[in-house]
Write a structure and sequence with these properties.
Layout (H helix, E strand, L loop, with lengths): L3 H24 L3 H34 L5 H24 L3 H33 L4 H13 L1
Helix pairs in contact: 1-2, 1-4, 2-3, 2-5, 3-4
Length: 147
């Protein structure tokens, strides 16, 4: 049985890999490779956010009996990261290396902090609170990924 922690942490690593590929390509002014890597990264991050916002967070909040707390903070951070990703896309479209890499640096710092909060606090709490539903939650998240 896979835990929520394992499933979502693995997805963090997958998204991080696409991000690093895009950042490396941009640093070399290889815009076609940057575009290709970013077109893997952006939808992967959106899917990750969607799995959390549509499946994990509601299940967590129902089990916790409150919409306040860590999920509220995570949703807010998702919106901030989405703004940075849109800025990166705009810089990519303009082939603006300095802006792309500057936004990437900010996003990387944000992702590292965000992922640490999820992996050190939220996911372990979710595994505990949703122990009897974890397979169902993971299955619902996988279904979103297959759509």
């Amino acid at each position: 049985m896979t835990s929520i922690f394992d499933h979502m942490s693995s997805d963090h690593k997958r998204c991080d890999g696409f991000f690093l590929d895009a950042e490396k390509a941009a640093s070399k002014d290889d815009w076609p490779a940057t575009q290709q890597a970013y077109q893997e990264f952006y939808p992967s991050m959106e899917l990750h956010f969607t799995m959390e916002e549509k499946v994990l967070f509601p299940a967590f909040e129902q089990a916790q009996g409150s919409e306040m707390g860590p999920t509220q903070v995570m949703r807010h951070e998702h919106e901030q990261m989405r703004g940075l990703m849109r800025s990166m896309q705009n810089a990519l479209d303009a082939e603006d290396k300095d802006t792309f890499l500057g936004e990437a640096e900010t996003l990387l710092m944000f992702m590292q902090q965000h992922n640490a909060k999820e992996e050190m606090m939220l996911y372990p709490m979710a595994d505990q609170l949703l122990a009897d539903k974890s397979n169902q939650v993971i299955s619902e998240m996988q279904t979103l990924a297959e759509e």
